[in-house]
Task: inverse folding
């Protein structure tokens, strides 16, 4: 074991304690951010005259070589070190000697780890956003191709009114668009630099925190050094946003699983995204959709876990906070994996347009339109509702759809009906009359699609 802090101790750390305390098995994930943060710190120290030019250059090239060697696999990160910070510093000293010992001037691992985690998270927020954007591109393509694909819209999972596939996909477009905007809010709020906060109370060195912040692409320094080392709000926000993304994906998966079922057959998941059964030769299961739905619980768990960890921590840094990493890393990897897989599954999925159309036609999804027809002919809505209820009952008993009825049959139930009832209850008409913005009518939908194109292009 190699530690940074042996000086005031007279005994070796107990092996179990060492292992319980160590974080290198997971914090090595941000080795790059740790090195980049150190580089900015050293540049600032030299600018402030705290390090000489010579020392700065030595440290920078030492850090660069460490980064390159880790990246090419020449240097392996091992658990001989307590954490990634110790690993980098010890390696630096090995490589460049005395100057390396000055790297940690005016810095604590408390502000260092706060910085590393922020840099890592900032990159991951951007990556999550990029993946969501790809998902939206697939959704938009499906929308563009299906403004006339009629399907039943559901409430209570009962057929309600006809919509189009474009319209249904558009609902998810809105959800994932909001998810992206949540990510961008998080970035805005978190993009302040904790470095220079020291252990908790700043340092006595004349650090230029604005400069370090600028070098690392932050808007500025965090304005309170105690908050800088102990704030994990941005992780909670990110976990919350990721939980919402998973909730959206999970709902979508649930629908796909239903649509892919033998009873519905609205969609067929591509072979590449389905799995078989070891015993039942006929099976083709939607495992990917089920797994995404299942992994949602895991991401919610990370959110609950970190909220709970943070709730009892007095200011400023406490070791409890080390628990943020495994949770957040796991959630990020889970969510990114789920978005990417889901996008592939959706992109290759076959929509069975005939089945959808047929299902809309045979579920009385046009019953409201039949009632509206009567209202337009002067019948009060409540009476119209009753008349159409009787029509529906008549059809159910004879296993037919509203538009299969003859005009005589219509007239037997209400003499108000005329030949134009067929147009009024045709699926195409039911959908295309719905033209307020946000409704499934083709013209309204085209307007929204145009807006989405511009949104994705920007
Ligand atoms: N591994 C620690 C963490 O993740 C780094 C900070 C350690 N600071 C300390 N005072 N022990 O939080």
Result:
């Amino acid at each position: 074991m190699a530690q940074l802090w042996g000086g005031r101790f007279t005994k070796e750390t107990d092996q179990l304690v060492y292992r319980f305390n160590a974080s290198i098995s997971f914090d090595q994930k941000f080795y790059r951010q740790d090195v980049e943060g150190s580089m900015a710190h050293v540049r600032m120290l030299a600018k402030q005259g705290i390090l000489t030019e010579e020392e700065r250059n030595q440290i920078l090239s030492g850090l660069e070589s460490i980064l390159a060697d880790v990246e090419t696999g020449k240097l392996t990160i091992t658990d001989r070190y307590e954490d990634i910070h110790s690993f980098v510093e010890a390696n630096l000293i090995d490589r460049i000697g005395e100057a390396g010992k000055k790297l940690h001037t005016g810095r604590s691992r408390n502000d260092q780890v706060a910085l590393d985690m922020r840099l890592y998270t900032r990159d991951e927020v951007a990556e999550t956003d990029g993946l969501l954007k790809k998902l939206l591109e697939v959704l938009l393509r499906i929308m563009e191709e299906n403004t006339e694909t009629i399907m039943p819209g559901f409430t209570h999972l009962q057929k309600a009114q006809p919509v189009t596939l474009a319209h249904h996909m558009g609902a998810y477009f809105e959800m994932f668009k909001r998810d992206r905007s949540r990510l961008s809010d998080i970035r805005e709020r978190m993009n302040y630099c904790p470095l220079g906060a020291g252990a908790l109370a700043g340092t006595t060195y004349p650090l230029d925190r604005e400069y370090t912040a600028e070098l690392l692409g932050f808007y500025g320094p965090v304005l309170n050094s105690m908050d800088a080392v102990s704030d994990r709000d941005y992780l909670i926000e990110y976990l919350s946003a990721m939980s919402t993304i998973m909730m959206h994906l999970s709902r979508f998966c649930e629908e796909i699983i239903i649509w892919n079922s033998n009873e519905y057959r609205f969609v067929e998941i591509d072979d590449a995204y389905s799995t078989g059964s070891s015993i039942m030769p006929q099976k083709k299961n939607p495992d990917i959709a089920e797994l995404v739905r299942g992994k949602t619980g895991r991401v919610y768990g990370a959110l609950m876990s970190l909220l709970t960890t943070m709730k009892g921590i007095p200011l400023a840094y406490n070791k409890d906070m080390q628990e943020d990493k495994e949770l957040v890393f796991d959630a990020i990897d889970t969510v990114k994996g789920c978005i990417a897989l889901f996008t592939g599954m959706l992109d290759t999925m076959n929509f069975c347009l005939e089945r959808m159309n047929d299902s809309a036609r045979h579920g009385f999804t046009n019953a409201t339109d039949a009632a509206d027809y009567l209202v337009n002919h002067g019948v009060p809505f409540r009476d119209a509702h009753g008349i159409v209820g009787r029509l529906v009952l008549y059809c159910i008993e004879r296993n037919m759809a509203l538009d299969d009825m003859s005009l005589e049959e219509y007239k037997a139930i209400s003499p108000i009906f005329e030949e134009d009832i067929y147009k009024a209850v045709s699926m195409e008409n039911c959908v295309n009359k719905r033209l307020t913005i946000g409704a499934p009518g083709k013209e309204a939908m085209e307007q929204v699609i145009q807006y989405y194109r511009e949104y994705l292009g920007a």
Notes: The mean pLDDT is 96.
